[in-house]
Amino acid sequence: MVFSVLSPFFESGINAAGKLYSRRAEMTHRIHLIENADLIRRVDGDIFESGNWSLSTERAEDLMGADIYFHKKQKEPSFYGGKIISYRIYNENDKHKGRIIFRFEYARDHRGVLAGAGGWSNEMKIV
Length: 127
What we know:
Elements: E1 2-5, E2 10-14, E3 20-24, E4 30-34, E5 40-44, E6 47-53, H1 57-62, E7 67-71, E8 80-89, E9 100-106, E10 124-126
Parallel strand pairs: 4-7
Antiparallel strand pairs: 1-2, 2-3, 4-10, 5-6, 6-9, 7-8, 8-9
């Protein structure tokens, strides 16, 4: 994913399909996810991936650069997280095909964060 800022209100980049796009900047800032399947995997150093999340590619693009927090339960503080740096689409031929896998850079200050009451849907909360 490549980003370049056009103005304080718009940004452009290349999406997961390799197509150029532009959109309004300052989209979503945080996503909280219930992670009970141990699907967080180290890629390299402080870079990790987590997937198979059910959301649109448009929403995934909106989350580029956003904070990501992983919780065991909605009312418990996060146990892991960081900044989203990219995403990819799961392409194996099974029930998870087409789901989103986020790549993020781990950040210690993303542990112990509460998501707040309400707003949860399908084991995720986007703020």
